[in-house]
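2 proteins. here.
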Amino acid sequence: MFEIRGATVAVTGGTGFLGSYVLDELERAGARPIGLGRSDYDLLDRAAVDRMLATTQPDGLIHLASVVGGIGANRAEPGRFFYENALMGIQLLEACRVAQTPKVVVAGTVCAYPKHAPVPFREADLWNGYPEDTNAPYGLAKKMLLVQAQAYRTEYGCNFVCLLPVNLYGPGDNFDLDTGHVIPAMIRRFVSAREHSLDEVVLWGDGTPTREFLYVADAARAFQLALAHYDAPEPVNVGSGEEISIAHLAAVIAELCGYQGRVVWDPSQPNGQPRRKVDTRRAAELFGFEATTALRDGLQRTIEWFTEGSPA
């Protein structure tokens, strides 16, 4: 097992949404975290990656850095999402192999699962089909890091592990309507509609798909626990176990935002994957992770953060 107390832990993407929570979680566990952003080291540049490892000399590393976005962003830049996510991760893991970094935890994605995987998604079903088209390039890029991690474990003995988190949300999320995910985008739309007394809010799709969401602070705890306690090659789902339809989600967010107008669905826009809900038993069994934040509570905290001084 990894002795986290007193360990130096580098966190790529440490200046980002999930990264800031992971840094806090690591500090509470007694580690010495180093949060790294693109302005510190460009992970697309192998020489910069080598410098980062030589400078920080981490006992452990958590790889969170990625190019992410909602359906619209994935449709607009599928090539960039594939290339940059794959290249950052592949170069980083190779550099960690060369530097003999003792432990690496890699953030994968629920988008790697096949479009029609049986629900709840079980890790054993990860390779039984092609991902949903709207985010397949991103999902496959992250999936290649699992292949690399397992191959390096077999050939070189590297202790690289991979987690598969579901959609995250919470205070500090990206509320940009072009690049943000579904929860922050809905919050922004409903708050704006309430403030401008709009009669209706138009949302993509038909509202029937389901999703599973995980509060960001819970996700951060999962990464800390995996760093400390998980040392096996199999990927592990990280989720809440709570499935909700997009239509129900919209109704809850509208209520919490105080919006009383109509929700209009635009079926000409894509729904994305029909259902998403993961089997969370492996995380509970192998490193003791279970989500503790109910969706409604997490949504309330996120809305309060957005409406009480967040960037417009």
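next one coming up
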Amino acid sequence: MQVPLSVDSDVDGKKEKLIIWANGKKNIINSPIKPYFYSFKKLNISNAKESRVEKIRISDYQKKMFYKYEFETRKELEQERNRIRETMGKGITFEDNIPFTLRNRIDNPNIYAQFPHTDKLSFCFIDIEQYT
């Protein structure tokens, strides 16, 4: 396998960490990115780093300018997103619901390849609720 057995995320203090299991070893690394979302509108967010970025909008594959808001933790992102939805409505923020481990993989395609599981698999299980 060229990927780890599992990847999860956790917060250690005010830092997002990735917990990566491969070859019987638990690897804990700092996340190379911070949780973030995009907005077409400039928002008044004091606890986020704001930058202007050009990205491809998924709905029509056109390059557009967005404001990018980066947070220290996923919890801060969720709190701010919820506040914006309550005061301004839905549709103001984008890509705010992508799981953080997947967001890391999207932004850094080779991040998990650094921790390949090369040992022979010794057991297999299935979660019947997930399967059906």
